[in-house]
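Spend some time on the protein that follows and explain the fold to me:
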Amino acid sequence: MSASFNDADVAFAQGMLPHHAQAVEMADIVLAKPGLDGRVDELATEIKAAQQPEIDTIASWLAAWGAPVMADHASMGHGADGEGMPGMLTPADLDALRAADAGAASRSFLEQMIAHHEGAISMAQTEVATGANQDAVAMAQAIVTSQSAENDRMRELLATL
């Protein structure tokens, strides 16, 4: 891992950690639905598989940088759970996803994950433009590429549900 880092790298990591954690939570919620469309199941499984290793990597960066895992989101205008960051679902949104049947949850998951990914893409683009840590910038670029492609796939899938 590249040793150099700046405040932008720390902010990216501290923001992306709860962002990715929520994406995994969203995937877990929808994957628990009986009768879920197989294409949504496949996509949610892929999202979860991609983001969990990134969570582990980001947490290791923060530890190496001596930065707290959780930023003080309240001072940044965000709730303590990251609520208010681009694309984050509210607790009520998550409750609605939990309560929905498989059909409604599929549509809701796709719509919400598109917005969630758009938030992550925005955060990643900021890191690409302002970050100093080569590994963090590389991850951010990979997030832009992969989540943009996933959004295209989710939009196509939404059109067929």
In short: The chain has one domain: 7-160. The radius of gyration is 16 Å. Helices lie at 7-31, 38-65, 91-99, 102-130, 134-160.
